Amino acid sequence: MAEKLNFDDGIKEYEVNGRELLRFNPSDPNVYNRFCELYEELSKLEESYEAELKRLEAETTDDDVESSGKALKLMHDIDAKVKARLSYVFGEGNDFDRIMGGVNLMAIGKNGERIVTNLLAALQPIIEDGIRQHQSDAAAEAVAAAKLNREQRRAKK
Questions:
Q1: Per residue in 8-49, pLDDT tens?
Q2: How is residue 5 annotated by DSSP?
Q3: Which of 36, 37, 145, 157 has minimal CB crowding within 10 Å?
Q4: Rounded to two decimals, what is the model's pTM?
Q5: Is residue 8 part of a domain?
Q6: Residues 6+ apart with CB under 8 A from 13
């Protein structure tokens, strides 16, 4: 039987809209960097999505089931791509299809914004606070190390 190794990894749990849990370490610089990458990537994905959707709408007639199917596939594909990117950002253990209750992230919320936009807006202050905490802790560690180094130099004299 394997022995257990437990330590504080900084993981916090956030209940998303009263449903599933999102787990990640908000002070992890890797999460912060990936989150910033996603923000940049998302605007390009949305532009591409909008352009392709307009192209499909221009081709669609009232009874064009094939074009409607293509539009639905496009919506599904972009949703899957964004959810995969979110899992990359916050950790592969976070299944965003489950966390979001199967909702397509390109859907529009009551406030007129895309669901993914609302999600990222809700997460942004958590991540920003986490990275500030990381920077504060790193600065405090550097100061403590400098003080110790100074004390050790003085002790040698």
A1: 999 999 999 999 999 999 999 999 999 999 989 998 999 998
A2: -
A3: 157
A4: 0.80
A5: no
A6: 21, 22, 23
